[in-house]
Fold this sequence. Notes:
Number of helices of chain B: 12
Shape of chain B: globular
Shape of chain A: elongated
Radius of gyration of chain A: 19 Å
Mean pLDDT of chain B: 88
Oligomer: heterodimer
Distance between the termini of chain A: 37 Å
Largest interface: A-B, 78 and 103 residues
Strand order of the largest sheet of chain A: 1-2
Largest sheet of chain B: none
Strand content of chain B: under 5%
Number of strands of chain A: 2
Structural class of chain A: mainly alpha
Number of helices of chain A: 4
Low-confidence stretches of chain A: none
Radius of gyration of chain B: 19 Å
Strand content of chain A: under 5%
Low-confidence stretches of chain B: none
Helix content of chain A: over 70%
Number of domains of chain B: 2
Order of helices and strands of chain B: HHHHHHHHHHHH
Amino acid sequence: MIWATVLISSLGCFLLKYAGMAMPDAWLSSPRVQRIANLMPVALLSALVIAQTFGVGQTLVLDARAAGVAVAIVVLLLRAPFPVVVVAAAVTSALLHRL
Amino acid sequence: MNQEVELPDNERRRITRDGVSLAFTVGLYGTAFGAAASSSGLSPWQALALSALLFSGASQFAVVGVGVITSWSLAVTAITGALLLGTRNALYGLRMAPILQVRGFKRVAAAQITIDESTGIAISQEHLGLPAMRHGFWVTGLGVYVFWNSFTLLGALGADALGDPAQFGLDAAVPAAFLGLLWPRLKGRTPWAVGMAAAITVLILLPHAPVGVPVITSALAAVVAGWKSGGAK
């Protein structure tokens, strides 16, 4: 099942890239579609941040992950590069797990 | 703009340097992906397959972000999330097609490396003409491909050797990675509103809806906001 997921999502994402490259005058050029596609990552990434920070199955919990993400926000506000943000969150959570 | 002017050697070197350093920085982050994939039960080969075949960071994290895929409904959630996040690459392809003007195998290769970074570097060379844009696209795209895949394998093998992901804080690294991808996109009022609406959607739905449904539902925030004209972009 994991392999099927890997292969189907890979094929689908490749076809999306290829479609843009192969059909220059397709419906994709409509301003409305462009606006939605630009906002799509914002919506999904925000949703994923919340689900991954507070979700365990179908319950909301407050644990070491929330502390890690809080530190990540501080580090982002300090304009740190991406890998630093990820490591800062991981170190925070790892330290809390060890307490 | 866009004319076929000769690309001077010094500009070519600068574009190569910019593209390769961006590729290396982004590639490093493949380590985080490999580790996250491992904590979601993917083998190192499956993690590498995603980096080699899917090759789009946010979509790959969406696949492993649903956790251990134990049911078909989770598989569908993972695939839907990846595709929704991949829609923007179609727009990049649309933008790059008239610049690259490639056919056959070269078009397939170009499509595969059409991502945020290659398109970004290419577009930022617009004032130098088409050859500069093409050079930026290929150097950056191929560079990210090589580094991203190498570091994915490193991260996956490393995490497998380390054991329990929570011990090393990988449970917090995944949402932090999503946050890092989100951050630069939060410019202007519309993106903030969409982000907040999506976050609230998940908080409300998560205790009631099946796993994965809240995240997919949040895509409606982008559709509603994008449907109406105006906004930041």
